[in-house]
Amino acid sequence: MKVPVRNMAGQQVDTIELPAEIFEANINVDLMHQAYVRQMANARLGTHKAMTRSEVNRTKAKWYRQKGTGRARHGSRSAPIFVGGGKAHGPRPRKYTQGMPRKMRRAALRSALSALVRDDQLVVVDTFTLAEPKTKVARQVLRNLAGDASALVLLPGRDEAVEYSIRNLSDAAVLHASYLNIRDLFSHDKVIMPLGALDVIRSYLGAQEG
Q: Residue 88 domain-assigned?
């Protein structure tokens, strides 16, 4: 599939043939959903915890005498039915991590990239570099490439000038191509991919596993 290559001013300067095994793969919605759910689950800390009646720091003394008051019989103020008491069946620390074979994870990324190309959400640029960190300049470049849409910029490696310039923009983000993931790809309207980032993606998604 041939797509235009633009410069940072938004002008087409060339065309490129995208690897068919990556950008023309079968779009498997169920697989992408599974990869997304796994990523979100693995991001959970699982440190939530509520104190039970045995953990609440309240007096252990009996409230009032057992008989003769006309009230119900109670022995502990830390019971779950009382304000300030423990929580019955509350959340406990646990792990939410889910596993997913590498072949399936990479197939999900191929599906996502193919869907972006199909929906005209992928913008290929010859290079994306800035001389110095400058948010105003970065905003103008993103407007040239993506218009008013939110944008994810893929970088082949560390670039402090670009990263520092974009991190102050609420509708844009930067991601290293080696950390490609489903959530970030689908969290923005446009994905801006320099040719250097394409080479990184091709290096680990280009060869189909048998």
A: no
